Amino acid sequence: MRLRDARLVEKADFDRVFADNQRARTDFLMVMARPNQVGHPRLGMVGAKRLVARAVDRNRVNRCVREIFLRAVPELLAC
Question: Is 0.85 topped by the overall pTM?
Answer without folding.
Answer: no
